[in-house]
Structure formats: structure tokens, C-alpha cells
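From the pipeline queue, job 12 of 40. The input is one protein chain; the requested action is below.

Action: predict structure.
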Amino acid sequence: MTSPVREAGALGAALTASVACSIHNSLEEAVASLAMQPHHFTPRTELSGFYDDVYDRYRATARLLEPYWPSLHGPQCRPDASESGN
């Protein structure tokens, strides 16, 4: 099952605001008032081997790229930046 909500953070904020503004008495009541239908799907088991292979390649690629992630964020995000005065 997947959620039809594309912006879950915004929905959560709206639900919280509805309680704060006394539109609903609780978050449970606010959620119960939603008229959304979840999307149900049935996995295609015949594709599981394909997706296992793709996921293995993704994990291998992520491991190879791991040393480069800090450089993508600039020096201010490096753990040693505060120590070196950068």
C-alpha cells in the first residue's frame, strides 16, 4: 500500500493546525476526517530477481561513492571544518 500524499510534512502541519484552531479535537479526529484512498498494489514476484540485482548494483555504487559525499557539501559541512577554523 502506498500513500496518495505527495507532501506528507505539509499534510501533518495542516492537521496539527486544524487541532490548534479547534477545527478538530485531536489529531486522530483530524486524520479520520481525511477522504483519501491508499493505492494498493500487488508485487510482481517474477521481477524480484531483477530488482535484487539492481539493488545490489545500487549498494555497490553507493559504497564506491561514499568517500566523495562530504566534498559535495562544501567545507562547512565537513566534520573537521570547525576544528581547522574553516
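Job complete. Residues 45-84 form one domain.
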